[in-house]
Amino acid sequence: MSYKFHQFQVVGRALPTETDEKPKIYRMKLWATNEVRAKSKFWYFLRKLKKVKKSNGQMLAINEIFEKNPTTIKNYGIWLRYQSRTGYHNMYKEYRDTTLNGGVEQMYTEMASRHRVRHHCIQVIKTATIPAKLCKRESTKQFHNSKIKFPLVFKKVRPPTRKLKTTYKASRPNLFV
Amino acid sequence: MPFKRYVEIGRIALVNYGKDYGKLVVIVDVIDQNRALVDAPDMVRGQMNFKRLTLTDIKIDINRVPKKKTLVAALEAADVKNKWESSSWGRKLIVQKKRASLNDFDRFKIMLAKIKKAGVVRQELAKLKKETTA
Fold it and tell me: pTM here?
């Protein structure tokens, strides 16, 4: 599964000067599509917090963070700040997924579809893996059932490869399960 | 009209699209409305969209998200492979695969066998016809 958004750990500090021999080192975990964007995002956030810019700072490390257990399902809670047409708002959303990158990607696509917010107007404040008891949204809590059982109501008949796709079919498809 | 095949933990499904086409997988957990966590003895446990799965009649008895060893043992205990290969659906798939992998000599042999079978059937039919007219 290739994800569009990757998680990076970016570490940087201001350049050492005569007055400040050992400036403080700052580390940030953020989501971006590639390393270059991640570094740019890092300086954007750091500028808002400290008096340092890319021109008088140095990047110490940038590493990609990969999912530790991509074979288990987790409930992710994402706190975000986004810009709508009328102002900035905070939001908390929950997603069920196997990896954090998958959950974040779900968040970006959902914000785009439900609120028409493009990905550059979204800032991820915090993410956390939520144990099942503390989930707040009904749409994630409905899957917390060890004896979950439901039928697949609609069966779409698909050719097994894109190559076998045809525009016209001889008969109407049977959609029952 | 009521449904007979449910998405549940332990349901065996056939993959009908994508890289694992034709494989039998076990639904080990449900992620959300569209995706399930599936597992098979020869693949890494991963997520799959329900659109890529066709549910079968076979269901095995496992807990939510079992260890790989427990899963393989449960598959052996329920004898999934034999049940599948003796079901009419499973047999049809085996025949399809065999037909697709024939070489020219095999097709020649099949042609002779078909002609022979048609000859025997026609003889019996002629016998029956004679009995009814006579």
Answer: 0.85
